User: Which sequence fits this backbone?
């Protein structure tokens, strides 16, 4: 279970999150919707441990463990996974090498033994096949020269390999055509389990047709201002965010 | 008052003067060599140790770094040689994939008993520098001086004045030497000493050689080294060269010269892996005498603590239609200082010259610094020459991304840095050597992460 209590965070002295409260139960898919600049990416970064943010108040707990005292790799070992809105290119490091380093480090952090190379290859191949990632992409430098859709698929592939306790998807739909959106969503849906929670961040309702959320939260000016079921997303699609942009403090 | 003009000498310079006076009579060499030494030493004393005011040494103040001159190493005693021999395999284990024949120098002196003399490949002949100097063959001595290269450099003159150890390596015309030849330097490390070594490699027309220079010393006292490798590449000769300078204790100084002349259609690929240890000045002077030749220098410099490492290259295109390449990576941590100076000179007749140089540095700390000085002196109109230099830091976004995938920061940094320097290592054509270099780089990265 992810619990965020009264979270206040700022960057370069600018307050972005202003007393945010949110609980995501195991097995639950929570969508976060909100206008541009409302703090959605910031929330994902503060949960996953990006440096540069100052948390001035509040707590973030995953299964009771305070994440805020851990660095990003330690949080990954605790089971946090962030699929980036803009995945980074890593020149000179092949995708395969990166995946192996990542999986072994994560397993080590969780007190699990390293995988043998054949076992590792087997898992990567299986995940790649499910997501329609061609094998030759795995031999290329990570994300270098990948299309937007390929990058997003690679994010989901990594999530599948690392088997996180809690997955955060930051605008995974942006830049995807409808076919890619379907493949990526199927990849995410395959990972849904009673033991795993998700935070699906999106600006548009479209993604939620494919990854159907249990709850929808509206983020505005660094706070959750409204919570509802999946129908809230449809409502927002019609009315827009105007109501929230105006009223929050 | 009667103003007497005495040149101001540093303690080190005065010591060098008295050492030279006393060593002069006993140093190996025929009359011709003795006069070459005298001329070189006079040139050295005229200029003194290079310092910030010498343009080519602006970023590497050797005079400042050499507080005193250490005694010149003599021929090692038989017992010392035995002791080194017993340690050779430990300090320089044979590397899989690099099946080299070894030439072992102890304190700079060629030691046949420790070298793979019997395994010397066909077409390669080997002599000790001492013998070459004693015989004093005029043509050889002329070749050894690397005529016209590095003129005016006082440290090169100092090397000529004191040169004692080293070898002459001749590769017969047409010989395709598959086995790499490795020159391994060891030192008897109980006393602080200075090494002045010079080797000459002559590649006959159409010959091919892979030459490695490594170090197997584990001195704990500071040393002063001044070594020169002179290469004459005949027409159509091919040389692959890998140099891994010693990682000497702090306060050591090391000047490593390379003087190269390139015949027509000859091909040189030289790689240097510098991993710090006191002050290192690596300077190479290359001249294209024949047309359609190619000379490429690449390297990686990995520094931490108070390491200082300088790569200075002077490439002279005299003949037309030649190609020169310089590609260097620097990784600088702690208070380390990196220097890259590349000068490409294109003489009036050297049309169709293609010369490129590139230096890229990553600074890992606020205390580290990088100095880049690329220079082009072009006197021909139909040439393509270019240079680029960048100084950057690791990308925090990439670091966070990899960390978010569970990889701890030190490991992420090592991964990104290895990818960065791999681009230089890729220039090494011998696969086994490339793997060896990658492994050595990995060791440096791991030590840095652990520190
Ligand atoms: N590094 C930064 N420095 C200053 N302001 C920032 C920084 N990063 C984000 N912001 C600001 O924080 C606010 C929230 O940004 P973000 O979390 O990216 O919003 P969203 O993902 O909802 O579009 C925006 O006003 C943005 O300009
Ligand atoms: Mg965003």
Assistant:
């Amino acid at each position: 279970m992810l619990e965020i209590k009264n979270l206040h965070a700022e960057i370069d002295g600018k307050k972005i999150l202003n007393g945010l409260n949110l609980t995501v139960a195991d097995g639950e898919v929570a969508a976060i919707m909100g206008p541009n600049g409302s703090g959605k990416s910031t929330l994902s970064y503060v949960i996953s441990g990006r440096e540069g943010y100052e948390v001035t108040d509040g707590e973030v707990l995953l299964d009771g463990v305070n994440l805020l005292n851990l660095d990003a790799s330690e949080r990954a070992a605790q089971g946090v996974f962030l699929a980036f809105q803009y995945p980074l290119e890593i020149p000179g490091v092949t995708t395969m090498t990166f995946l192996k380093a990542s999986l072994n480090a994560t397993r080590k952090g969780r007190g699990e033994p390293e995988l043998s190379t054949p076992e590792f290859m087997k898992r990567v191949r299986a995940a790649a096949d499910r997501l329609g990632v061609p094998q030759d992409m795995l031999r290329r430098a990570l994300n270098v020269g990948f299309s937007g859709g390929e990058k997003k698929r690679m994010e989901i592939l990594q999530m599948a390999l690392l088997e996180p306790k809690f997955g955060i998807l930051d605008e995974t739909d942006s830049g995807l055509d409808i076919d890619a959106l379907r493949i990526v969503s199927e990849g995410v849906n395959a990972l849904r389990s009673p033991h795993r929670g998700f935070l699906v961040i999106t600006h548009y309702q479209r993604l939620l047709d494919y990854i159907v959320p249990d709850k929808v939260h509206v983020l505005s000016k660094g706070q959750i201002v409204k919570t509802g079921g999946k129908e809230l997303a449809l409502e927002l699609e019609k009315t827009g965010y105007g109501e929230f942009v105006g009223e929050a403090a | 008052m009667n103003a007497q003009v005495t040149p101001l000498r540093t303690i080190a310079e005065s010591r060098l003067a008295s050492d030279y006076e006393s060593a002069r009579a006993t140093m190996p060499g025929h009359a011709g060599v003795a006069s070459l030494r005298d001329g070189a030493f006079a040139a050295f004393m005229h200029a003194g140790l290079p310092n910030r005011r010498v343009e080519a040494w602006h970023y590497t103040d050797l005079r400042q770094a050499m507080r005193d001159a250490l005694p010149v190493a003599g021929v090692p005693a038989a017992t010392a040689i035995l002791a080194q021999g017993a340690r050779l395999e430990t300090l320089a284990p044979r590397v899989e994939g690099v099946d080299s024949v070894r030439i072992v120098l102890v304190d700079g002196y060629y030691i046949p008993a420790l070298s793979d003399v019997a395994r010397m490949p066909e077409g390669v002949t080997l002599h000790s520098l001492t013998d070459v100097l004693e015989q004093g063959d005029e043509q050889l001595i002329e070749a050894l001086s690397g005529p016209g290269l590095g003129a005016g450099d006082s440290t090169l003159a100092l090397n000529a004045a004191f040169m004692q150890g080293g070898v002459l390596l001749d590769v017969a015309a047409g010989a395709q030497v598959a086995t790499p030849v490795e020159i391994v330097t060891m030192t008897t490390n109980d006393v602080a000493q200075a090494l002045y070594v010079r080797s000459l490699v002559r590649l006959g027309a159409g010959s091919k050689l892979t030459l490695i220079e490594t170090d197997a010393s584990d001195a704990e006292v500071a040393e002063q080294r001044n070594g020169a490798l002179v290469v004459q590449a005949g027409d159509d000769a091919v040389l692959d060269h890998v140099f891994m300078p010693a990682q000497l204790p702090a306060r050591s100084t090391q000047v490593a010269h390379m003087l190269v002349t390139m015949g027509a259609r000859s091909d040189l690929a030289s790689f240097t892996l510098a991993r710090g240890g006191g002050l290192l000045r690596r300077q190479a002077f290359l001249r294209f005498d024949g047309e359609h030749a190619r000379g490429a220098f690449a390297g990686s410099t990995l520094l931490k603590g108070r390491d200082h490492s300088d790569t200075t290259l002077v490439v002279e295109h005299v003949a037309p239609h030649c190609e020169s390449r310089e590609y260097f990576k620097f990784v600088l941590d702690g208070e380390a200082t990196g220097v890259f100076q590349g000068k490409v000179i294109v003489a009036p007749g050297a049309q169709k010259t293609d010369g490129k140089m590139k230096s890229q540095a990553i600074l890992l700390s606020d205390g580290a610094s990088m100095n880049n000085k690329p220079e082009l002196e072009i006197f021909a109109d139909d040439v393509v020459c270019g240079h680029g230099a960048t100084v950057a830091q690791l990308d925090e976004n990439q670091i966070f991304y990899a960390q978010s995938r569970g990889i701890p920061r030190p490991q992420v940094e090592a991964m990104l840095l290895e990818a960065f320097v791999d681009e230089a290592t890729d220039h090494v054509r011998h696969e086994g050597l490339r793997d060896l270099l990658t492994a050595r780089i990995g060791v440096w990265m791991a030590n840095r992460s652990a520190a």
